[in-house]
Amino acid sequence: MTSPDKYDYVLRGxxxxxxxLSLLGSVKWPTTKTLLDRAGxxxxxxxxxxxxxxxxxxxxMAEAVLPLGRVTGIDIDEHCLGLARSxxxxxxxxxxxxxxxxxxxxxxALYDLVFGRFLLTHLxxxxxxxxxxIRAARQGGVVVVEDIQFTGHFSHPACPAFDKYVSLYQQVxxxxxxxxxxxxxxxxxxxxxxxxxxxxxVIQPTYRxxxxxxxxxxxxxxxxxxxxxxxxxSDEEINEVIHEINAFACDPRTVLSLPRIFxxxxxxxx
Length: 270
Fold this sequence. Notes:
The protein is of the alpha/beta class. The protein is built from nine helices and ten strands. The protein has a domain at 14-150 and 178-206 and 260-267: Rossmann fold, CATH 3.40.50. The chain has helices spanning 14-39, 56-65, 78-91, 126-136, 160-175, 186-192, 215-222, 224-229, 235-249, and strands at residues 46-50, 70-75, 95-99, 111-117, 137-149, 155-156, 196-203, 206-207, 255-257, 260-267. It is globular, with a radius of gyration of 18 Å.
């Protein structure tokens, strides 16, 4: 998901980026739904989805809270916001999508639930962004974050091309000012921010087939420009990595994981 909080996003935007976000949304929704249910998502709540992208989570939240509740999604990518508005219209869901970012949120103490997925990892000032999310929550409102530890990836058996992808992703995110392994820090960030009733879970989605097993090759393609621009690999080297990951993924005896994912939630103090 995207936000303009002082970072240069390493993944493609626009229509191509939207395709990846759609794939990610379908792969990740089951575990995100479990998290949001645990955090108290229910009819009538007013919710904010920070870094909403094409609105895959925003629209699911709207299905849970409407008609008495309300969902707002914010993002820096206006093209993705346009796609989110079109999707909401097609589904007949009243969801507001607008340009915005976590650290510069103008809304204060308005939301019952504030959510951000795979956002803080890209930011050079993740703590400032979290503070913005907390300010947007009402007193007693819940702030919910999902983010990654990229080193937590694994394959079986070992796949050198997959390991190369994991390394390249981390290098290019770090060069853009982000933290590809922010996941383990989240609990401390929530506690330092003074949130109450902090909850914590770690999950590791892993696949032997299906769309989840495609995510590594797709993500490698979508960081191509950033990796080549940083001089970390050539187009030819990236082509080889993608080809080898796809061949590995086609074998039904192999398994590929997503990054290790940290889920943290807590309430804004009264």
